Amino acid sequence: MRFLNTPVTDLTYNDVFLVPSSSRITSRFDVDLRTADPTGATTPLVAANMTAVTGKRMVETMARRGALGVLPQDIPADVVARETAWVKSRSPHFESVRSMRPHDTVHDALAKLRRHAHASIVVTDDDGRFQGLVLEGDCQQVDRFTQLHVVMRTDVPVFTVDELTAGKTSDSGAPSAGAAGLYEAMAQASTRLERARVHVAPVVDGERVVGVISRQGAVRSTIYTPNLDANGALKVGAAVGINGDVADKTRQLVEAGVDVLVVDTAHGHQRKMVEALSIVRETAPDHPIVAGNVVTADGVRDLVDAGADIVKVGVGPGAMCTTRMMTAVGRPQFSAVLECSAAAAELGAHVWADGGVKYPRDVALALAAGASQVMIGSWFAGTWEGPGELNQDADGRYYKESFGMASTRAVLNRTQGQEAFERARKAIFEEGISSSKMYLDPRRPGVEDLVDHITAGIRSSMTYAGATNPRQFADRAVVGVQNLSGYEEGQARRESWG
Ligand SMILES: NC(=O)C1=CN([C@@H]2O[C@H](COP(=O)(O)OP(=O)(O)OC[C@H]3O[C@@H](n4cnc5c(N)ncnc54)[C@H](OP(=O)(O)O)[C@@H]3O)[C@@H](O)[C@H]2O)C=CC1
Ligand SMILES: Nc1nc2c(ncn2[C@@H]2O[C@H](COP(=O)(O)O)[C@@H](O)[C@H]2O)c(=O)[nH]1
Ligand SMILES: [K+]
Fold first, then answer.
1. What is the pLDDT of residue 172?
2. Where does NADP(+) bind (predicted)?
């Protein structure tokens, strides 16, 4: 990356813009977003290890679209093991089924329908055989205690795994037909759904329902490559704190099948972090290890030295974060990522840009600054897949609550087993907010909608820079510094002016 004009201060994402360069790339689909870091991600996005952001459904959905979700450090190891096993039992290609039995009620179905972006229930018998499909419209204008066998549709297309993977699956269950075969199979599936006037239908393997395919899911299957482990199962990330028995927690995560370990604390450039990281590296010698957070080249060097493959960068940019206002500590995120990724590259390591992402442009800028992936928290909390309760405000808008991991709420959660006096002492250092409303965007209520939105932006950014992959992009990008009116000029106007 090079600057158009030499900056005189540290810069946030809002302070900078990308200058277009001569390009030979004929299509945005020619951009390959695969990361250069060892996580195997084919989409450079990570759902943050925050309680309000990442649970098993977020992890599953992110990995299916080539990205990664990191379970927070506050989840007990046995629960992480259960959630990991659940994610790994999901179809790597087809969206998860919400299945119910014929005698369950419309009342229960309505409560569950909105847990998945595809908003459907597949009715099966006790052996998982398809009986019918229930969509939201089927539950209107009937008594709430009507049983599902009364309202379910039985005349919907039922797809087989074989036909959707163009007749071939590899040993790992992954489609092995070429991209053209997959494209053809997905285009046909979409046409069948359209003709049947449904947006979603079940997928069976033999007689058992293993997933559903939606029209949007069919399109996505031709754009994304799932992030899979050696057994063909979806990848899972999980965080480890620097306190407690770090070796034991790491061992449990590794045994649970977690693929990527994230050693995480607010001030990553401290001795306790270096010690914890060395223990994690020793306990999991072959796992990709991420550690943070830091914002300086020195911080990167110390963490790479202690065993990190990837350093997580960002102090204070997070939407739930009050660290900068409490302590004045941090660093404008664009400059932090730029300096840290240069230091990491010298050591053959990588950085993740963590926090402060509100628009696709922020992700593009983090990649231009050299990040191998970009971690997003609060933006993803407000999606169907976010683990929070779905609430509605007085205007009927859906939202979920988000909160910071250093908020009083999170600290009281984390210290539940301890004496009240000790808990009160720990809650003093509050550096995050305990409650905020993250509205579901009616146009993009699912995390996959946001992933589509973001990757569309960054694919396009890369072609403007004449780059077909993130490495070339970081190499070729030309970045200029702008003032506030430069930033404002870039925004669309939803109403007339003057
Ligand atoms: N990226 C960011 O800007 C920030 C992220 N967070 C997130 O919040 C979560 C909780 O992190 P954290 O608060 O570190 O809690 P942790 O449970 O990870 O504990 C941090 C440990 O480091 C010690 N410590 C020393 N100096 C500091 C310091 N300046 N800030 C914090 N701890 C310090 C603490 O001791 P003692 O408590 O006795 O001081 C404690 O033992 C993590 O997920 C983290 O990523 C939190 C703040 C900022
Ligand atoms: N200073 C604090 N930082 C926090 C807290 N909780 C999370 N975080 C950091 O924010 C990012 C996510 O940023 P976002 O803008 O996408 O929401 C997360 O990964 C942490 O590094 C907190 O309580 N205080
Ligand atoms: K902030």
1. 43
2. 264-266, 314-316
Q: Which two tokens stand for residue 218?
A: 């069919």
Residue 246 belongs to what H/E stretch?
Answer: helix 246-256
Question: How confident is the model at residue 329, as a pLDDT?
Answer: 97
Angle in degrees, CA 281, 39, 340, rounded to 5: 75
What is the rounded distance in angstroms from the CA atom of residue 439 to the CA atom of residue 416? 29
Cα angle, residue 221 at apex, residues 132 and 477 outer, rounded to 5°? 150
Whether the complex's predicted ipTM surpasses the cut of 0.90: yes
Q: Does residue 48 line the site of ligand 2, with CB under 6 A?
A: yes
* pLDDT, tens digit (0-9, with 9 covering 90-100), for 343-376: 999 999 999 999 999 999 999 999 999 999 999 9
Reply yes or no on whether 340 is catalytic. no
Strand order across the beta sheet in which 391-392 lies: 391-392, 398-402, 436-439
Residue in 320, 383, 400, 429 to alter for ligand 2 test, most ligand atoms within 8 A of Cβ:
320
Say if residues 41 and 35 touch (Cβ distance below 8 Å). Answer: yes
Q: Is 314 annotated as a binding residue?
A: yes
Give the residue range(s) of CATH 3.10.580.10 domains in the chain: 99-221
Q: Three-state DSSP class for 406?
A: coil
Ligand 1 centroid from CA 451, angstroms:
29
Quick check: CB of 452 below 6 Å from ligand 1? no
321 is known to lie in a ligand binding site: yes
Return the CATH fold of 99-221. CBS-domain (3.10.580)
In eight-state DSSP terms, residue 265 is -
Per-residue model confidence as pLDDT tens digits over 449-478: 999 999 999 999 999 999 999 999 999 999
Ligand nearest, relative to CA of residue 318: 2
Residue 283 known to bind ligand: no
Q: Indicate if ligand 1 lies below 6 Å from the C-beta of 355.
A: yes
> Which of 265, 280, 294 to mutate for ligand 1's pocket (most ligand atoms within 8 Å of CB)?
265
Ligand with minimal distance to 407 CA? 2
The CATH 3.20.20.70 domain(s) of the chain lie at: 2-91+228-489
Distances (CA, A) of 178 to 170, 212, 233: 12, 22, 20
- Is the CB–ligand 1 distance for residue 314 below 6 Å? yes
Q: Tell me, what's the pLDDT at 467?
A: 96
Superfamily of domain 2-91+228-489: Aldolase class I (3.20.20.70)
pTM higher than 0.90: yes
Considering the candidates 45, 58, 321, 462, report the single residue annotated as catalytic: 321
Q: Is 417 annotated as a binding residue?
A: no
Mean pLDDT of each 10-residue bin along the chain, 498 residues long? 91 97 90 96 98 97 98 96 97 92 95 85 94 94 94 94 68 52 90 94 93 95 95 98 96 98 97 98 98 98 98 97 95 98 98 98 98 98 95 94 94 88 88 94 96 98 96 96 94 89
